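Risk register update: the risk of archive-format incompatibility is retired. Evidence:
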Amino acid sequence: MVTMPLTTYLPQGLLKEFVSSIVYLEDMGMGIALQRVYQTIIINTGSNFYTSDLYKDEPAKENSSVIWINGQHERPFALENPGKTSMYVIGVKPGMLPYFSKVPVAETNGTALGAEHWAEPDMFKLRHKLIACENLQAGFELIDNYFTGKLEVQNPSALQNINYLSKAMPENTVQEICMVLGCTRKKLRADAIYYFGSPVKNMQGIIRFGEHLATISRDPYQSLSSIHTFYDQAHFINDFKARTGMTPSQYRMLCQHYPEIRHTPNFISLSKETFLQFIAKYPA
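Archived output:
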């Protein structure tokens, strides 16, 4: 298993309300990316990445963008970098992407959307400054100052509702959320798609899936029947397989063999070839 060295920076001041963390990754990068609830902004200061469908025998496609948004991809994909990995990963909190992007959040789903489609030209100047930085702390501060400056001219009036939605979606029904917000189902659907990229029901499924990944990876020896809230085990297995192409048992087996997965449950640091060999060796 390839473990990528990383350094984490926690935003200060205004930015911490919108960004959970900024991570710098370096060295060789490869892995399997699974669906997640949030979006990330990537500023690549190394070699270009290549992506491919995890379960199709097809050539990998080069991502020539140097800055992009990774959205809520519905299908897992394989990521590889034959050169040197060096990039800053900005973890945008759920619902906060519209404060950084000029395009609807839903347009970032299932793709790596290059900054030329959603950012201002000065973001590319930020990248050049990051490349010239003498140390990581200076790079983190550059990013913090840049995005804080962008946020200071934004209208924060919707923040209260976004934060409520982010906390309410995992536990509350659509009807309960509508009652608290005083809105119709149609308005709630539109707001959820605008800020989060998917309707509430879809988001609830993604949130639940992320919780399953985290729970299994933390303790891969526990009973799978105890971790889910589906009507029965069959529904849990079908939902998990629809999102990943593997069963919960296979994911649990991966976590047993590669305990480092617990640090990044949605990203498995294995090559596509190694992953597929493992799944074939341990069928459902």
